[in-house]
Amino acid sequence: MTICATEDATALGSPHRAALTIAADGSYAARLARHDDAAGSRFPERWTLSGPEPYAVPLPGSQPEEPDSQLLPLADGRVLILRRIADRFALSLLYPTGPGTGELLLGTVAAPELTLLPPAPGGMLGYALAPGERGTVLWRVHGGAHGPERVTEIPGRCKGGVWLDHDGRLLALDRELGGRTKTVVLDLERGGEPSPLLQITDESNDRLLLADPDSGLLLLRSDAPGHDRLGWGVLGSSLPVRFPECLRPADGFVTPFAVQPGQMLMPESCAVAFRIDTADGPRLGVWRPSGRQLRQLPVPEGWLAGTGLWTAGGELLLPCATAARPCGVARMAVPLEPVRGTGAGPRRGAGPDGRTDAGARTRPGAGFPVEVAVGSKGGIVPDARDTDNRSTPSAQLSDAGAEPPEIPAHPQMCRPVPLQQAPLAAPEARWSAISRQVRIPTGATQPVDPATDSSVWGQPLRLLGEVPTRTAVSDLTE
Questions:
Q1: What would the pLDDT profile of 182-230 be if each residue is shown by its tens digit?
Q2: Is the dihedral of CA 291, 296, 298, 303 positive or negative?
Q3: Pairing assessment for the beta strands 272-278 and 281-287 based on DSSP bridges
Q4: How far is the CA of 87 from the CAs of 36, 84, 111, in angstroms?
Q5: For residue 387, pLDDT beyond 50
Q6: How far apart are CA 131 and CA 402, in angstroms?
Q7: Are 41 and 64 in contact (CB under 8 A)?
Q8: Does the N terminus or the C terminus of the chain have fewer Cβ atoms within 10 A?
Q9: What is the DSSP letter of 350?
């Protein structure tokens, strides 16, 4: 799973401008590259990542692109581009053809703002958000029968965009309404009506950053602990949201951008890659819930900071661009030790398969579940028995036990295994050599590449039950 990243340096904690967007199946990517002229004008560039070596194909139009043009690569090799034209936005498909670039106009959307959402699962649909005075309109800008289609209007101002399943049905958005920001989920097969997804306390601002459909792992930001913190939880479970102390480095702002896929029902074993913005430039961090350390690793030269993807086998791929190598991927095998169990025999409250009851969290070696509840006034009430806090010290970051009793009963999703707390102590990973680059000059003939096999990403759908309407929280750090 991937998230876009930034090209230009910004203040710590500020929103990032996308430098490279990777298709849903990891086969292609696209970015606005710069010409070598004095003006530094921009043009669309498509990267092919599915072959033995990456290579880039320029897709220049009849004139340079504006810096605010947005790109979305599709799984068939075409690139969706969104351009602002006066008071509306035009959408087109770009593809290499003959000596130049082919362009197919899809239509326009009249709106003061329009932002492309991350690539939808399947790789052939495109969505965008248009905030307005009364609410935010969700548009299907590619994949409809007759050009851009209005899907639904959500009350409030929505941002973000995280897909929760492999079918492109469940879309999570961060909605600002009544002075508070909460994450809601839209079921696009039922008209897109929003329902609450994250509501840690009534007064908190809760934002979803990243989700892994295979394991159910969620990465979020919330000020429920008293100030803005990065936390993690599990979708479809009443296990508590945790706010690890190690995800608060004193000298940087941490943002997750990729989660290792294929860890079915094992959120504690998912490796997560982070961009760490510091005064000295971006750094790379790797962490997983079962560990208690944010491992900071060397950054490859020319890394498009905050962009990358994991393979199911645990290899981290980071796109890079330098003057000598304008299109490359740095590969790093991150060795992760097996998740440690909690001792011999089933835990108290566990079923025959060894899984604990919903709402309980078991410490390694403990003989009872540790529960954390939400107070009646929205405060965070930790259980006094949980005193094990062997976290890695640090500070500052950006964007519990059971479900509250007032939540109505609903069909339960598959429960993940209990969240472990074993430390992560693996050998240091090393970067491999950057792949050889193939630079294709403007005007070269290049056919459209066929779509690649997306079996790495096409795991069975797990999110079959009703999305829970509230998540409990713990302020206990790991």
A1: 999 999 999 898 999 998 989 999 999 999 999 999 999 999 998 999 9
A2: positive
A3: antiparallel
A4: 31, 7, 7
A5: no
A6: 35
A7: yes
A8: C
A9: -
Task: Name the nearest CA neighbour of 233 among 183, 180, 276.
Answer: 183
Residue labelled with tokens 């106009």: 105
Residue identified by tokens 């991350």 is 118
* Helical ranges in 387-448 per DSSP H: none
Give the whole-angstrom CA distance, residue 333 versus residue 311: 10
- Among residues 140, 139, 135, the alpha carbon closest in space to that of 158 is found at 135
Distance CA 403, CA 419 (A): 17
Please choose, from the candidates 233, 271, 229, 235, the residue with its C-alpha nearest in 3D space to the C-alpha of residue 254.
229
DSSP category for residue 189 = G
The candidate with the shortest Cα–Cα distance to 345, out of 356, 360, 331, is: 356
Residue that is written with structure tokens 């075409």 in the block: 78
Two structure tokens written together for 90: 């035009």
Instruction: Extract the tokens encoding 173.
Output: 């958005």
Contacts for 321 with CB less than 8 Å, ≥ 6 apart: 33, 302, 304, 327, 328
What pLDDT score was predicted for residue 217? 94
Instruction: Please report, for residues 48, 140, 300, 331, 395, the alpha-carbon distance to residue 433 in angstroms, rounded to integers and kept in the order given.
Output: 18, 40, 9, 7, 34
> Nearest CA to 276 among 393, 398, 160?
398
Number of Cβ within 10 Å of residue 42's Cβ equals 17
270, 260 Cβ separation under 8 angstroms? yes
Burial readout 436-455 (b: 16 or more C-beta within 10 A, e: otherwise): ebbebeeeeebeebebbebe
List of residues 6+ apart from 52 with CB closer than 8 A: none
Phi/psi for 189 (5° steps) reads -90, -5
Task: Report the predicted TM-score, pTM, of the whole model to 2 decimal places.
Answer: 0.71
Question: What are the tokens at 143?
Answer: 């994949």
Spatial CA neighbour of 172 closest among 397, 408, 458, 463: 463
| Whole-number Å distance between alpha carbons of 356 and 477 | 21
Amino acid residing at 155: P
Mean pLDDT of 424-434: 41
Local structure of 269: helix, strand or coil:
helix
| Count, residues in the chain | 478
Strands (E), 340-399: 373-374, 380-381
DSSP 3-state assignment of 439?
A: strand
User: Which bin fits 406, alpha (ψ -120 to 50), beta or left (φ > 0)?
Assistant: alpha
State the virtual CA torsion across 136, 137, 142, 147 in degrees, nearest 10. Answer: -150
Contact 268, 420 (CB under 8 A): yes
Distance CA 182, CA 171 (A): 14
Instruction: State which H helix or E strand residue 328 sits in.
Output: strand 328-333
Distances (CA, A) of 51 to 28, 80, 452: 10, 21, 9
Q: Are 302 and 325 in contact (CB under 8 A)?
A: yes
Q: What is the mean pLDDT of residues 53-67?
A: 92
